[in-house]
Amino acid sequence: MATDALRGGIDLGGTKIQAIVADPEHQVLGQARRATPTEGGPPDVIAAMADALDEALESANLKPEALTGGIGVGAPGAIDTKAGTLARAGNLPGWRDAYPMAKELGKRFGGATVKLGNDVQVATNAEFTLGAAREFSTLLGVFWGTGVGGGIVLDGKPWLGRGAAGEIGHIPVRHHGLKCPCGRIGCMEAYAGRRAMELRARKAHDEGEKTDLFKIMEEKGRDRLTSGIWERAIERGDDLAERLIDDAVDALGRAVAAACNVLDPDAIIIGGGLGVRFGEPYARRISDAMMPHLFHDDDPPVMRVAELGDLGGALGAALLVVKA
Amino acid sequence: MATDALRGGIDLGGTKIQAIVADPEHQVLGQARRATPTEGGPPDVIAAMADALDEALESANLKPEALTGGIGVGAPGAIDTKAGTLARAGNLPGWRDAYPMAKELGKRFGGATVKLGNDVQVATNAEFTLGAAREFSTLLGVFWGTGVGGGIVLDGKPWLGRGAAGEIGHIPVRHHGLKCPCGRIGCMEAYAGRRAMELRARKAHDEGEKTDLFKIMEEKGRDRLTSGIWERAIERGDDLAERLIDDAVDALGRAVAAACNVLDPDAIIIGGGLGVRFGEPYARRISDAMMPHLFHDDDPPVMRVAELGDLGGALGAALLVVKA
Predict the structure, then answer these.
(1) What is the pTM (predicted TM-score) of this model?
(2) What is the pLDDT of residues B124-137, one digit of tens each?
(3) By residue range, what is the domain housing residue B227?
(4) Opening angle at CA A103, ends A102 and A104, nearest 5
(5) Which positions in chain B touch A157 (Cβ < 8 Å)?
(6) What is the mean pLDDT of chain A?
(7) Distance of alpha carbon B34 from alpha carbon B32, whole angstroms
(8) Residue B14 class from Cβ within 10 Å (0-12 exposed, 13-18 middle, 19+ buried)?
(9) Is the complex ipTM higher than 0.85?
(10) Residues B286 and B213 in one domain
(11) Residue A295 and residue A207 in one domain
(12) A124, A167, A261, A263, best to mutate vs chain B, most B CBs in 10 Å
């Protein structure tokens, strides 16, 4: 492999697909974003991924064959890295059985090598390698968005367990708690996940509670409560939004404390749509909610906001094909 | 080192000191147990440890100089393995500052090499190397006794974090919960630790609730509620004992689920005084309490009771001086 080989990186999310082209110094030469298909099946999703990466290449005046360094994909669901397949991706349309994503995507780019990784794990690895956690060796990444995912790096290496490590969103935080979108009771994500927060807000609104959340949503022409809408509502002093965000911060603090009591990491990185949007002041609030439950509290882990923002997932995906 | 070198192992607990002499095949040639001093300071504790190990040697007709393979110690508190010191051992009398345990203990045994390790971690490593978890590579050890400690083995190696990993007893399990002996609110140990359970039982008893727990304690001539007393009360159908044990099992299940959602281990080993005493039926109850909160629930970790019983800690300590 030439040292000047370009790499592609794709962050495949439930709502959007972010593609980048990166040079050997991890500079982003081109980028593009598409909505994730909501209908169809794996071939449709892969076509949209390929289109996004094509567009990223075009924006840098590059041809599909330019990605001689390979393509990395961060995806949700059950990944078989050796086989290059993705299965049980509940947030993607019709994606139950294992589908040969690596092979099919590679075909569209001159047979480029394609490697798959867990979306949260590659985003954590990006912050570890290129972002806010560069100087640490052991790290918990907290990705606060539609759901809440956790990524783990231990002594410089990703920790995946049997493939399902880092599921901090489903740490139980309340004894007789709310039902989580996953079906369990009292999960952290039932309070802190944007999807669950929207369900709570709709229910309260339907029951007559006053809130500007849905008014702001209409003003912005959106059909769901994005991170920006939550931020705007908080700025306006919306009582319901404040209460739900308070609950989210409390749940995040408890679950992050639980994870830290298990792992005792050097650092915690707060990322994800809500995490990056709310930034430092909310990282401090999460830290304040964590401290009363942290055992190693005379030397707590450093808490920082993710540095790579929206491109972290795609940059981390592109790291999957960096040769050691 | 001769391959037939004998090793000493000492499990230094807050209530008792267990010493063994082990041969190269990890057979226990001699053993002895002493009460941990409740007064004095480090020299008194080290004298009691040396006496226990002397007695273990005598029981095998061996001299103090026989431990040419070295001595391992599993201890609670802050251990500096390189310096051979122990500090902040809250359950040991007058043990705040770092004290050179390794050097002082070695003097009593012909200058034998002494290595220190975390008590819970060495017990976990014993189950991993010699006991119930031999065939697994990633493991959570749950030591349910006076407190509740967690030991972690990842890909065959102990995981200690920055020295305070595995503190599963202080995972928060209730939102407005009981005060834990550690001072925090709602920790798992506030429900499942034997010390905390005894405090709850005494309070309920003082407030007039009927229970046989303290009657059994008197019958047995004890001054605290040992694991055997809890077992006897449960056998008699004591309502208070049942309720407190139900709470303990629920708290254990939640915290173990939280730890598994973080680590995704192959196996969970239930040890400790209460864990070993209650055995398989309670390991199943803890598993039942864990399952509703386990994310990777289509393939849960194997749950087993520790095999090495009361000697696990000392056997694990003796493993500290096994040459690779």
Answers:
(1) 0.94
(2) 999 999 999 999 99
(3) 132-307
(4) 95
(5) none
(6) 95
(7) 7
(8) middle
(9) yes
(10) yes
(11) yes
(12) A261
